[in-house]
Amino acid sequence: MKILSKLICILALATTAFAVDGWLNFSSPLPIKSAAPYGDGLLMATGGGVRYRTNTADDLYTTSNGLGDQSISAVVVSENEIFAVSDFGIISTMVNGYWQVLSRSYASNKVYVIPGMVCLSGSVLTIAFENRLSFFNLKTLTSIITVDRISDVSLTSESISAMKVRGDSLFVAVGQSLYVRKMDWENLESDVQLYNQDSWSVVKSASNKGYDIKDIAWKNGKLMTFPSEGMRIWDKDGETVVALDTFSVISSDAPLVTLRGHALEDSVLYEKKESVKIIKNDTIRHPYLQSKVCWVSLQPSGKAILAGPNDIFYYDGRKLSELIEYKKFAVGGAYELQVLPGGGVLAASKKGLFSRNFGNEWSEPKLALPSAIGNNTDALGHNMKTLSVIPDGTVFYHIWGQGYFMYSQWGESLETSFMATEGLCMDNILENPKTPYTVAVWTIPAPDNNGFLTTSGSNSGYSLIYVDLNGNISCANNIGSAMLGGPMVARIDKETGDWKVYVGTRKELTTDADGGLDVFTFPPPKQMGGELKKSKIQVKNYYGTPSTPLDMVYEPKTDYFWIVTASSLAYWNEEQDSLRTPLSTNGLTSASFTSIDVDSRGNLWVGTSTNGAYRLTPRVTNPDTLSVTHFTTWHGLLSDRVQDVAIDSLLGYVWFAHDNGVTRYTRNDLRSTEGNMTDAAREEVKVFPNPFRPNRHQYVLFNNISDDAVINIYNRGGRLVATLANERVVGGRAEWDGRMDNGNIVAPGVYQYIIRGKSKIKKGKLLVIH
Asked: Based on the structure, what is the number of domains in the chain?
């Protein structure tokens, strides 16, 4: 129980540690790449962080908890220490309840760690990469040596397939051969023969048995090798075998999962598979079963936690129960995010699931279609952003090839479908009546929030589509200058009341195709009988980007549109005849861009496919010059692979979508202060805590104030003791620590505050208690 108590303490400390951080990760902890028994459960290396699972506890650690990366290949545990190694070899350890990166030295090589192939002996981590074997000193935090040959084998040609430490010996399997070397673990840096490939010996008795070695174990002191990955234990309680073995049928002769001598025949532990061979033009199919689990944590009274790459089970001594679902973020990989008008975010997954977040909790995922059809590989392949939301909770969505769908209650209930098979006005990109296929890359709310706008692709030029809230659809067919319409922005012309719709164009289906910008101007549909009329739509075309626009935002304060392509950033306004690229973007390294959004202060937030995210601040007078701030997993991003970015100016969050989860970054300066301290303010000014106790409270918060506010605090005698203004007012908030402007803490008593904004003054009293 000592180890478990220690882990519970670690979990509590970790929760406290990241609660005060600005970064919070939501991840799907799959697949499971390796696992180690720990306490009452398994500590697992997953594609979404390190997960600890028992029958009752479920905790996930990610980069916001200090891990070096989202995707972890191995975890190793000693009596007092826990280490995690990421896919590219970033080494982290748990220290005082928080993960701490020990080394990133291997990461720059961009070579993958073989899942589970990390061993700990003394102060040395042995790490098997796909083409090399490395030894890392945990005391000096340096690499001792990296070798690419073992005996007569080149690891660049054939990877290590199994690895185990037993005492002073390191056993390494490559293919059908097993090699061993004596190691002085405490003085490994002094081993001058470590680089010598001939210092390894072949274990002839365990080699060349007709199979690639996937596991190494000892039974009663005898060395044994196996053709399947797993855990094999022989002790006083009997034989335990949990391995990815295959067999034809469940029977007493089959290599079943066995716990303490008891074979488990439960079908839930085995997956039906099929091998296919072509012999003389005949297809021969052979069905078989394979175990789903290969790791186990044995518990008292015959209980156990079992896990495999995509499964976790609890065995209570009689029956099995599934534990794989991670309820805190069940939607899985999110490729698109839409901020909700009242704050929060709606996420769409590649598998066709919606889930929304109004704070720290995600809703139960809902299928976009009962048939469970999603955008899958098309979502990323075409950089789709087809999720739209309006203030009344109506959601609009497109599924590639299928059509358009409208939902109520923030995506909870499907109300109307516009299927490609229904003969509606949208295009069939395949141009074959027998195979209707409608495709779109983007959808947006109509500028009056009474419907939605989208496009449909066509070889004759894409069509512009309007859908109202009553389910009526109309199309301006083949009005676009290219095959596909890309990112869209819509707004109302303040002078004429016309709608202006801006559409990035794509000449081919690929995201590196040529493209530009189409601008459509037309009267609101309600002035045209509730539909689009092609004859009344004015069209202008603009070019200048090296490839098709992938995302686009409008910044109203400067009246500029900002666009990202796969390889460039561009800007445009109505006075320009072409799209332009900024001249100075120092710090913006060459990257593959995926997304862009703008915050209430005009900062641009850009996502990339491999380099994390950037915040770009254009000069007000010159969009050609931008200051750049870079964010990666070092700072708290779940992953450096960012598919979408969404700014919640109401709550002060920036959201990032990743292939296996979502990151939320909290910043005070993200909150919009528009309307604060005016008659149109969403919320009144709040001052809390009141009374203020300096020995208990860190500061007094003045909330919902305007950015130009000046706060003066006076004592009972009318003497000014503190002023908060300028850089001390951020995102509609200011903090006072109870100290006078001279740095001294104020005396207890009643103080008066006066908050002066441009259009309003707020007065109140504050009680300070020591």
From this structure: 3
The answer to whether position 222 is within a domain reads: no
Same domain, 652 and 607: yes
For residue 694, the enclosing domain spans 686-768
**Dihedral pair phi/psi, residue 669, rounded to 5°:** -75, 0
User: What is the spatial distance between Cα 757 and Cα 673, in angstroms, rounded to a whole number?
Assistant: 12
Among 547, 570, 585, identify where a domain stops.
547
Same domain, 569 and 508: no
Residue type, 101: V
Domain endpoint, select from 495, 528, 547:
547
CA distances in angstroms from 237 to 3, 260, 296, 299, 624, listed in the order given: 22, 5, 15, 12, 72
As separate numbers, helices (DSSP H) first and strands (DSSP E) second, the chain gives 2, 66
**pLDDT given at position 311:** 98
What predicted TM-score, i.e. pTM, was given to this entire model? 0.84
Residues in the chain, how many?
770
Task: Say if 542 falls within a structural domain.
Answer: yes
- Structural contact between residues 91 and 136, judged by C-beta atoms closer than 8 angstroms: yes
Kindly give, in sequence order, each residue whose CB lies less than 8 Å from that of residue 720, ignoring residues fewer than 6 positions away.
712, 713, 714
- Is residue 546 very low, low, confident or very high in pLDDT (cuts 50, 70, 90)? confident
More confident residue, 467 or 2: 467
**pLDDT tens sequence across 755-768:** 998 888 999 999 99
Which is nearest to 326 in space by CA: 316, 336, 312? Answer: 312
pLDDT at residue 5 tops 60 = no
CA distance 60 to 183: 35
Residue 653 CB coordination number (10 Å): 23
pLDDT at 682 over 90: no
CATH for 585? 2.130.10.10
Using alpha carbons only, give the angle 103, 106, 108 rounded to the nearest 5 degrees.
Answer: 115
The answer to whether residue 289 is domain-embedded is no
Check whether residue 496 and residue 555 sit in a common domain.
no
- Candidates 537, 590, 598; CA nearest to 566 is 590
Give the span between the Cα atoms of 616 and 632, in whole angstroms.
Answer: 15
Report yes or no on 155 lying in a domain. no
Shared domain for 435 and 339, answered yes or no, is yes
Cis peptide before 689 (omega within 30 of 0): yes
Cα–Cα distance measured from residue 682 to residue 669, given in angstroms and rounded to the nearest whole number: 18
**Whether residues 570 and 665 fall in one domain:** yes
Q: Residue 88 carries which DSSP code?
A: T
- Kindly state whether residues 539 and 557 are assigned to the same domain: no
Has residue 7 got a pLDDT over 50? no
Give burial (CB, 10 Å; 0-12/13-18/19+) of 343: middle
One domain for residues 406 and 511 = yes
Q: What is the 3-state secondary structure (H, E, C) of 124-184?
A: EEEEEECCEEEEEECCCCEEEEEECEECCEECCCCCCCEEEEECCEEEEEECCEEEEEECC
List, for residues 358-400, the tens digit of each pLDDT value: 877 899 999 999 998 999 999 999 999 999 999 999 999 999 9
3-state helix, strand, coil in the chain (%, to 5): 10, 45, 45
Name residue, tokens 């790449």. 33
Interval 693-720: pLDDT, tens: 998 898 999 999 988 899 999 999 999 9
